[in-house]
Queue: 2 jobs
Job 1
Amino acid sequence: MIQWWQILLLTLYSAYQICDELTIVSSAGSPVFAGFITGLVMGDVTTGLFIGGSLQLVVLGVGTFGGASRIDATSGAVLATAFSVGTGIDQELAISAIAVPVAALLVYTDVLGRFSTTYFAHRIDKHVENFNYKGIEINYLLGAIPWALSRALPVFLALSFGGNAVQSAADWIQNNAQWMADGLILAGRMLPGVGFAILLRYLPVKKNLTYLGLGFAITAMLTTLYGYIGTLAGGVGVVSEIAEALGGAQFNGLPMIGIAVIGFALAGISYKNAVNAPVAAASTQSESGEIEDDEI
């Protein structure tokens, strides 16, 4: 079961994460971070990272523009991880049966939070006219309260009163509708793929197809390479133990220098492209100064 102090900590984190996402932007409001924090509080970081990472992939290609709202995958990660650890629900089942519905429902509290802050915005406008800087600061800080409550209140109510309901529903599905559980688990496993599909849909894939192919090839090769190395490491470990017993040298694990070098190379390519972008833009202009291409 979920303890009162765990509910308190997760409620406080839920209040903070949305404010961080809107102001500091330290990634503390991301689903994977929420899964890590919740897993840390609940005592199962592995489950938290799995659920948070899965939901991070789901919203990988989803963004907000202007006043638009999106599903609150961060709060979904908090509740799914808490109930998965606290009640023993399967991780994939928690993602599809808890995280996704919660993330969708909290769109409404997000809209309510945005709507409530207009009260403080109008007060700030009034203080701007009167040059009341202290009033501007106070109302700016007060505007964070509706945002914090839009996440903290639903999470608190769900953790406080929803535990028994979630446990009862999970037990009923397990005992009477295993086919439903299997379907929900399958859906949970497919969600990260949906997130990747959305991301690829909006990324300029055709324009940067070479980079996509390069990344796929490198990932495939490294996966195969380190898979073989992992198998070899088992044998090397035995040899290492024997060598240590005989007073010989000690073997160390293979460093991730290869991945670091590849990342550094790709970062260098990106930097060169950014530096050369103004030159490329200037080259698209005709002698009369008219831009002939549709991209700058």
Note: Residues 202 and 233 are 41 Å apart (CA to CA).
Job 2
Amino acid sequence: MDESSPQAAGPRTLRRGLRVLAALRDHGPEGLCVTDLARYTGIQRPTIYRLMAALLEAGLAHPVAGTKRYRANLAQDAAMPEPDPRLRLTLPALRRLAERTGDAVFLVVRDGDESVSLHREIGGYPVQILATYAGKRQPLGVGSGGMALLAALPDEVAHDIVARNAACLDEYGGMTAHEMLRLIENTRSRGYSVVGNHAVRGALGVGCALLDAHGSPVLAISVTAIIDRMPAQRQREIAAWIKAELARLGT
């Protein structure tokens, strides 16, 4: 069968997924990051991201806590992990937003100085921004969901997080600590975050945080699309839709 034919696409994807899974298996509990996976398998990083999203969703791989690495989960008697209660709470809202916007919708939470994506819901528009996936970690504030969480923290806490993350921010589209502090102020004055061209080139995200009774951020929901789909008016509309869904969660 011609490898470039549509009929070959399914088997080719399966073979690549198995190569990624085998690499994770061979490296044991310490796991591998996406860059290492690309080097060991010869598969390009964008494809690794897509394959990892499928493996994570299927429970065949898990993030290694506190790192950017992933490990295989191949034990036959391994129980599937319990869904995060924040995902159970928000999943209907995520699906409604994906249907309404047509774009990718993300559930993001804070873990120390990082944001963690818990879920990605894909919309119906033909071009989707999918580089972020369940289990992915990045410095808090790099993406629109993480920025909504960061901006909801007290000044001292937020500024300390930015300072601790400053050395690695340049990896995300040339982000700087100064620019992140500016984004925090913009998010607070606007009432929602708008972050573009940092974690993912050519993308722009809008995010809002859900706060608890003490004003602390619990989670954030963000919508990310190609920049052409995100003029200022649509950013405001999407923020309003996210806030309406978060208000339903809080009642």
Note: DSSP finds eight helices and eight strands in the chain.
